[in-house]
Amino acid sequence: MPTNFTVVPVEARSDGGGDEAAERTEAPGTPEGPELERPSPGDGNPRENSPFLNNVEVEQESFLEGKNMALFEEEMDSNPMVSSLLNKLANYTNLSQGVVEHEEDEESRRREAKAPRMGTFIGVYLPCLQNILGVILFLRLTWIVGVAGVLESFLIVAMCCTCTMLTAISMSAIATNGVVPAGGSYYMISRSLGPEFGGAVGLCFYLGTTFAGAMYILGTIEIFLTYISPGATIFQAEAVGGEAAAMLHNMRVYGTCTLVLMALVVFVGVKYVNKLALVFLACVVLSILAIYAGVIKSAFDPPDIPVCLLGNRTLSRRSFDVCIKARVVQNGSATSALWGLFCNGSLPSATCDEYFTQNNVTEIQGIPGAASGVFLENLWSAYAQAGAFVEKEGVPSVPVAEESRAGALPYVLTDIAASFTLLVGIYFPSVTGIMAGSNRSGDLRDAQKSIPTGTILAIVTTSFIYLSCIVLFGACIEGVVLRDKFGEALQGNLVIGMLAWPSPWVIVIGSFFSTCGAGLQSLTGAPRLLQAIARDGIIPFLQVFGHGKANGEPTWALLLTVLICETGILIASLDSVAPILSMFFLMCYLFVNLACAVQTLLRTPNWRPRFKYYHWAEKEWGDGIRGLSLNAARYALLRVEHGPPHTKNWRPQVLVMLNLDTEQAVKHPRLLSFTSQLKAGKGLTIVGSVLEGTYLDKHLEAEQAEENIRSLMSAEKTKGFCQLVVSFSLRDGMSHLIQSAGLGGLKHNTVLMAWPASWKQEDNPFSWKNFVDTVRDTTAAHQALLVAKNIDAFPQNQERFSGGHIDVWWIVHDGGMLMLLPFLLCQHKVWRKCRMRIFTVAQVDDNSIQMKKDLQMFLYHLRISAEVEVVEMVENDISAFTYERTLMMEQRSQMLKQMQLSKNEQEREAQLIHDRNTASHTTAAARTQAPPTPDKVQMTWTREKLIAEKHRNKDASLSGFKDLFSMKPDQSNVRRMHTAVKLNGVVLSKSQDAQLVLLNMPGPPKNRQGDENYMEFLEVLTEGLNRVLLVRGGGREVITIYS
Questions:
Q1: For the purposes of burial, counting CB atoms within 10 Å of the CB of 790, is it exposed (0-12), middle (13-18) or buried (19 or more)?
Q2: Gene Ontology cellular component (predicted)?
Q3: pLDDT digits 0-9 by tens, 333-376
Q4: Residue 82, SS3 per DSSP
Q5: Are 393 and 384 contacting, i.e. CB atoms less than 8 angstroms apart?
Q6: CA-CA-CA-CA torsion for 701, 702, 706, 709, nearest 10 degrees?
Q7: Running DSSP on this structure, what letter comes out for residue 544?
Q8: How do 750-754 and 784-789 pair as beta strands?
Q9: Is the Cβ–Cβ distance between 338 and 273 less than 8 Å?
Q10: Is the Cβ–Cβ distance between 784 and 997 less than 8 Å?
Q11: CA–CA separation, 307 vs 484, rounded Å?
């Protein structure tokens, strides 16, 4: 086919200019076309405002200059050229579809380019590391190892780390399913789950973060009062055994004061909290390095840390120094300080505790080192009730009767009853910092890449640290010391600190500052989270907490956070607050995993995460009791909103228009195959068809046709509903289906039909006029239209393409249908191995290299993997072939009109003679009864009349044909044909071997006189291609970059 265009590959271009040496063919006698006027807006149908058009200042005249895109010019106001929008599409900060709060924040988007962007290491990895490693590691992990043993402790840590790893995998899938909003984890989860679940998750996340602040503050006070300054206590024990109650009161007083102080810091100078984050992180890292250094040193030079045992019971060394009952002096023996604790006097003859009398005092090394073999002793659990003695197995002990003074004696006792589930609840908060990176999503250079990578690496790192610490603690530290929660056997020193090198103070000071910093960060993040929930308006009575200071600081939310945090501090026990915190975070993580599971199982078109390594089992569950199913269906239909769905939830709900033959069999069964490949059993599918006639006459044929359609649907595995209409005409029946198919809010939004291959044949029942009117109907109904050309060449469900391409020719912006459809097709086994290519057309003035970069960036944000190519169509003169093709088209149209006109004139003349004959007999018929007028008019012809009529018709025919051959084509038709010819040539040169070609479908002309020309334009546009899908958008956005 002779075409006249120039294709310049982008890679071969560097200057963006046109090829001046392009061949040009001047059509003989082609007059200069008139200057184009600005077209009237579309087809008069209102369309949804495209969010991609924000702040796009493009002159309408620039669209219509030249002849290259004349085929699409009537709809340029609603479907603008891709080349004019790509730079806006690629810049996702201008894309506000799906996130209302970003539409209102214009200023922040303008400042976005100036803000420094953080990478994976600084922005995600280190914050997660700092939040995961914290108070439990320093204050409770050794005790957990001592009570549960190495094996069960390993199981506890592995369970919790697996839980957070699975949650991080789900969160990574959600985070990479579109541009992550600047609101962090809450926005990411709530926008994926919807407002109902989103509000519940937000509250769980908020309460968990608030109680985390209380836990960190309690940990800070415990370190201060127990290991740094024990003499700073305000309340003292008034009676024997009252130390625990006095300690709780001290924790409440100091915790409340610390909370108030931290709240003031957050209220006044939150920026300083962020600046000190690296200092707090350095404390954590140095402390962990000190632990590993101490373990290595203990292997060849274990520290001398004696532990005093009385029989097999561990003694607290807070009140004595030397672990002996009596010492030898010059005149004999003298009692020790330990003697005075167990006896009623310091004399050797004093009355002593029976167990003290019957058992010997021995000393063992508290930290014998990694080479000591103590690991085997610490393998098994040693759960005990509250108030039980911390005993060492294997040491001889003489049992005695019930002791009443055990609480007053210097024994190390268990303070709470321990169990496996309790230890899980206490430990779990130490792995709950996995969302620290996603909370900084607005500051990340590439959140879709950084959040999964940084979070998972942080979990792997911290899991290794925790698991290795369990093994190392069990291998280096004596069991009774591990079970000594507050280090009483070590003279009140922190157990993990005694293992560290070079000094215990490295751990004490490091843990103090790290827990203090974590508390500040919790008090900083929780109010902002509550403010975000309140501003969403999901929970009405929380809306007051959406207000704050003029600079946006959440004052009221901070006040509520402090009050809730105070309730945790009044509990005053780290071991009691930690399980509460665990429950809130477990619920939050449950909903994150649920969001990922639901999106995966439903296969929503918007679910396109870049992170592919998440796995959820797909199950087909039974239907259950039919009555319950019916009620559930009714309830769901009533809940389905009648308005248009959100862009994130849009999927093609397809009405498939089938043609039937005279035997009521489906003409193109491959149309149903293509439907099942496109839908994969998800969403709504309505298979519709029209029988011509009346229902009373055709009801038996209608039942047979419906049965044939259902059988074909079952064979093609098309899950949907069949709807057959009997109508007086095919045109009306199709219009009725487009208007009324579906039920309530469960209606189709897309029409799929086959191209009328025999549209040029006059006897074809599905004529071109029906087709064009159907296109107009879908446009008026704001429904998308898919037209499959050469549908019988499309693959069946059993076929598998081993390769090839699905080529998308994106000429004008259609709401994203051209991007979404090939993605959905590639989910099916037939098309799975096909690669997607996207072509777009650049005009002379476009920067094709920049267009390609912008399109690649846009596809990256859409999570669609495709090759990109920008094809340049140079402004050439109209070729002779185009001129001749247009002329032939118009001659054919004019001939058809004249034939139709001649037929109509004959009918009108016969009717006129009939009317005159009837009028002449009216008077006579009134006087006498005349026979009725015959149906056919008998015309009397003489020879002269016949010859004259023949010459008249012959002259008229000759003059008409002379007019046909002397006519000149309409210039607008020439320009449209020019567009069709050039585009067809470009598409053939690039996509002739593609498995499927998707093209923008131009709209029909507003002037109905040119409908047959419209069909010719489409025929030329798709000529020579094997499988073509013409796509026409429904006037709304169907794809978004947001999750």
A1: middle
A2: plasma membrane; synapse
A3: 788 888 888 888 888 888 888 899 899 999 999 999 988 889 99
A4: helix
A5: no
A6: 60
A7: G
A8: parallel
A9: no
A10: no
A11: 11
At 854, the amino acid letter reads D
Look at 448 and 474; give whichever has higher pLDDT.
474
Residue 411, both tokens: 């024994």
Q: Taking a C-beta distance cutoff of 8 angstroms, is the pair 687, 721 a contact? A: yes
Q: What percent of the chain has pLDDT over 90?
A: 37
Q: Are strands 313-314 and 306-310 parallel, antiparallel or unpaired?
A: antiparallel
Q: 998 vs 524, 753, 805, CA distance in Å?
A: 51, 14, 11
Q: Note whether 653 and 683 are within 8 A (CB).
A: yes
Pairing of strands 867-873, 835-842: parallel
What's the CA dihedral at 691, 692, 696, 702 to 10 degrees?
A: -10
Nearest to 434 by CA among 651, 164, 227, 778: 164
- DSSP character string of 581-642: HHHHHHHHHHHHHHHHHHHHHHT-TT---S---------------HHHHHHHHHHHHHHS-S
**pLDDT for residue 941 is more than 70:** no
Backbone angle region of 809, left / alpha / beta, with phi > 0 → left and psi within -120 to 50 → alpha: beta
**What's residue 159's pLDDT?**
96
Sign of CA dihedral 179, 180, 181, 186: positive
Which residues, other chains included, contact 432 with Cβ-Cβ below 8 Å and sequence gap of 6+? 131, 132, 164, 208, 212, 581, 582, 585
Tell me: pLDDT of 510 over 50: yes
Q: Which of 210, 218, 125 is nearest to 571 (CA)?
A: 218
Higher pLDDT: 645 or 6? It is 645
Coil, helix or strand for 170?
A: helix
**CA-CA distance, 652 to 48, in Å (whole number)?**
17
Query: How open is the CA angle 476-576-520, to the nearest 5 degrees?
Result: 85
Return left, alpha or beta for 1035; rule: phi > 0 is left, psi -120 to 50 is alpha, else beta. left
Say how far apart CA 997 and CA 698 lie, in whole Å: 39
pLDDT reported for residue 524:
87
306-310 β-sheet, strand order:
313-314, 306-310, 361-365
Cβ atoms of 201 and 174 closer than 8 Å: no
Chain centre distance of CA 769: 43
Instruction: Give residue for tokens 């993580």.
Output: 589
- The greatest distance separating any two alpha carbons of the chain, rounded to the nearest whole angstrom, comes to 169
| Structural tokens at position 439 | 């909370």
DSSP line for 505-542:
HHHHHHHHHHHHHHHHHHHHHHHHHHHHHHHHTSSGGG
Peptide bond into 502 cis (omega under 30): yes
pLDDT at 36 (0 to 100): 38
Q: What angle do CA 920, 924, 928 make, to 5 degrees?
A: 155
Q: What is the mean pLDDT of residues 94-117?
A: 42
Grade residue 280 by pLDDT with cuts at 50, 70 and 90. confident
* pLDDT mean over 974-981: 84
Closest C-alpha to 432, from 611, 215, 154, 273: 215
What is 412-433 written as a DSSP string? -B-SS---HHHHHHHHGGGG--
> Tokens 């001290």 — which residue?
250
Render the burial of 122-152: b for 16+ CB within 10 Å, e for the rest.
bbbbbbbbbbbbbbbbbbbbbbbbbbbbbeb
pLDDT in tens, 373-410: 899 999 999 999 998 999 998 888 888 886 666 667 88
The size of the chain, in residues, is 1043
With CA atoms as reference, report the closest residue to 346 among 332, 355, 334: 334
DSSP string, 433-497: -TTTTGGGGGGBS-HHHHHHHHHHHHHHHHHHHHHHHHHHHHHHS-HHHHT-TT-GGGTT--HHH
